[in-house]
From TrEMBL:
This is Pectin acetylesterase. The keyword Transmembrane applies. Its main location: secreted. One of its GO terms (molecular function) is hydrolase activity. Keywords: Cell wall, Cell wall biogenesis/degradation, Membrane, Secreted, Transmembrane, Transmembrane helix. One of its GO terms (biological process) is cell wall organization. It holds the Pfam family PAE. It comes from Malus baccata (Siberian crab apple). It is found in: Secreted, Cell wall. Hydrolyzes acetyl esters in homogalacturonan regions of pectin. In type I primary cell wall, galacturonic acid residues of pectin can be acetylated at the O-2 and O-3 positions. Decreasing the degree of acetylation of pectin gels in vitro alters their physical properties. The chain crosses the membrane at residues 30-51. It comes from the Eukaryota.
Amino acid sequence: MVVEKVGSNSMANISGLRGPLWWMQWAKRGWAIAAVGFAVFVFALSVASYYRSSEPESNTANAFHRITTSDLIDLTLLHSAKDRGALCLDGSLPGYHFQKGFGSGAKNWLLFIEGGGWCNTIESCILRKHMHLGSSKHMGRRVHFTGILSPYPDHNPGFFNWNRVRIQYCDGAFIAGHPDNELKNGTELFFRGRLIWEAIMDELSSFGLSKAEQALLSGCSSGGLAALIHCDEFRHLLPKDATVKCLGDASFFLDEKDVLHNPTMRSLFRDVVNLQGLAKSLNKDCVARMEPERCIFPEEMVKNIKTPVFHVQSAYDFWQIQNTLIPKASDPHSHWQKCRLNIYNCNSTQVEILLGFRGSLLKALNEFEKNKGGGMFISSCFIHCQTLMTEIWHSPKSLRIKNKIFGASVHSEHDPIAIDIEKEGVWAKKDWAIAAVGFTVIAFALTLLSNSWRDEPDSEISRPFLPNAAAFDFVDLTLLRNAKDRGALCLDGTAPGYHCRKGFGSGANNWLLHIEGGGWCNSIESCSWRKGTLLGSSNYMDRRVPFSGILSSHPSQNPDTVMAHPSLATGKMSLREDVLQHRTMRSFYNDVAILQVSFDLYYY
Ligand SMILES: *[C@@H]1O[C@H](CO)[C@@H](O)[C@H](O)[C@H]1NC(C)=O
Ligand SMILES: *[C@@H]1O[C@H](CO)[C@@H](O)[C@H](O)[C@H]1NC(C)=O
């Protein structure tokens, strides 16, 4: 019955939208809305129950997320960079966030390099000029220091009082690119990674890094690769008697072929190496022995690094599963689609292949395991980057591994595909709090990711690697001009903002308004906290956001929001379930567009 109503909704009536007939049509459309509404309601319930179930004791959760602004750290632009030509891809100054150490940590330094993939083509580098990954014009002016960067002893007992630096990554090539490779034909792209590295080290040295007693160079994903590439250089900058280590989080990229046996990952690295001249930044012995792109893979890199290294890695790192093992191109018929988005959806054949991938990781780590100075934490979370996540790094939710099994290989009894390996380093017991990660966290992370990824099939923006440059459509922030006079202000008194892309063609008179989410504040403290974030102040809003999904300007990604599918207009619909789902989703888009029009008319 519902289907019939949906089917009878000839979209030809859209032309009568503003006439009296419109309300009659609207009544019919109500059925469609009801059907969609129900689906949305069920969906909302499941989302709500997820949020509730993931935070079982909201009191502890609240106590845990202390409401304060002291972990929001300002961006510092590297001013010495201009004279030295140490510039982001777009020619702007690189930046970092720095919090001074104190007490027993005053002479210790923790550097954390932000991740964010890389650019392997001219187009993808140009795309980065419009994002924080290629330009400080788009960097967050304040970031939270969480996990390994947290300033609270109970969240971060090992490093809370160290000098902590979060380095923004804006050269697209592991802070290691070479200006010799810049294009000489008018394409404005700066390949200054090496110069950025040197400029940042000089600036931090002048703040006391050169006199450090203990130092850790760390990073997530491609930032972790940058940490490994620069690890020994970093060591040499510091006093001989200092304890210096490096940490790669989710940076153990494997030199593995994809499910179609194509060397996807290796060819990606080859393109980055060639584009930005990385060979000059890699280990010379390695480059002499093999193709330079192979020397970026950590399994080769660690053979040459003399400084102790710690790896935090998941055997089922979701980035690697989605890009190394099962890149989209290797799955033209979408047989892997469900599995690659959530490993709980994999069938037994697919799990075998994932186990094989895990086997390759363990094999690659085999050599490294003999390295007495190093350490590793290998988990089975479907996750990518863990050290900045306070819940995983050190929290009541983290399960401790007992001291007696610490330092040995531990095969989890709970989960047949889980393996935790923990090796002791110099800071092991006290500082590698990561050992606290346990089965609950694995389960927690799996739920978290399975929930947050299920509904975003391949949303490119949430993935660290951005291959389809052309697919992005950036829209500038507009501040509401007359807001001030009317007193229409954000929590902190700044003008509210929106991003608007003008309609065109047959959509020129149709409007889609999409309101951003972001929870709410239920206490004076939590409202005050928002004043320091984009949820309470336009000072912190992104100045440009990509329009994707329902906001996309590309017809292929965002099928007509107003024109219906021909089969809807003719009412030829079958009752088959898949067809129903497909059409309902489409009419959901239609009705959202029209609902917003009516809202629009009413409001003005
Ligand atoms: C510059 O050279 C690169 C590679 O040689 C090419 O892809 C690009 O289109 C050129 N740009 C211009 C503006 O000619
Ligand atoms: C698992 O799924 C793949 C892809 O859909 C299929 O080829 C394979 O036969 C399935 N294996 C099992 C055991 O169902």
